[in-house]
């Protein structure tokens, strides 16, 4: 038994090392000068604490603007998508509308479509309504995309909601809105918190649709700014690693702040 435990611990430690290794390499090269990188390679410890890569990335891509664009677009998508998911799931899971299984299947099918198949009609519609090159286009698009998964998840939870609670609320004269916010919402609130965290991180990391929709430098997001450092003939690896480190920090901080919320939400869902 002890041998098995040691084998499991060794395998876990090895897996953790494999997972953490790219971040360690990125951290090493973020504070390494180009000459140091050329002579010593990517796996060596920096000979000096080099900060010019961070300064170069921040000024070259106007990172402050890109950071603000990513923060407010991802935050709005997380909020709007969770609210839309709740309303859709309430109608499907609690309202018991006709053809709800077909609706859920259609939502899942739409959620599985690759973004490449959606980009042309989305770009055309954005041009027609005058929202092309506007961050609000990203907010609207990803609110709908993310809410597809949120609707499926919350509808599955609300499909098993105790009917006795709903009947008791109806007998007390509660309206549908009151049942939603005072009976249903407190039960699914932990799941909604988890969805909000996921939606924020997923939207933050989106690249393809924002790259096509946001052609103006002032409207672009962090992943696009990071990709702009990669040229076809020249690649500044230390600056690229410094940019990747700075781009990763906001989502890491966001995750650490809401780690307890995520843990409580997953645990509450498991208990229910």
Per-chain topology:
Elements: H1 2-30, H2 34-40, H3 52-60, H4 63-94, H5 100-112, H6 115-128, H7 135-158, H8 163-171, H9 176-204, H10 208-213, H11 222-227, H12 237-257, H13 259-271
Question: Overview of this structure, please?
Answer:
This protein is mainly alpha-helical and 272 residues long. It has two domains: 1-50, no CATH class; 54-271, MetI-like fold, CATH 1.10.3720.10. 78% of the residues lie in helices and 0% in strands. The protein has 13 helices and no strands. α3 (52-60) packs across α12. The longest helix is centred in the N-terminal third of the chain and has 32 residues, at 63-94. It is globular and about 75 Å long. The model has no long low-confidence stretch (mean pLDDT 84).
Keywords:
single chain, mainly alpha, 2 domains
Report the sheet with the most strands, covering strand number, pairing sense and barrel closure: none
- What's the architecture of the largest domain in CATH terms? Orthogonal Bundle
Annotated CATH homologous superfamily of the largest domain: MetI-like
- Level-1 CATH class name of the largest domain: Mainly Alpha
What string, H for helix and E for strand, traces the elements in order? Answer: HHHHHHHHHHHHH
> Structural class of the helices, strands and pairings?
mainly alpha
Give the averaged pLDDT, no decimals: 84
Share of helix, binned: over 70%
Unreliable stretches covering 5 or more consecutive residues: none
Q: Please indicate the percent range of residues in DSSP E strands (runs of 2 or more).
A: under 5%
Annotation, overall tally of beta strands: 0
**CATH-derived topology of the largest domain:** MetI-like fold
> Helix count, per DSSP?
13
Shape: globular
What's the alpha carbon Rg, rounded to whole Å? 23 Å
Instruction: Estimate nothing, just give the exact number of structural domains.
Output: 2
State the distance separating the first and last CA atoms. Answer: 34 Å
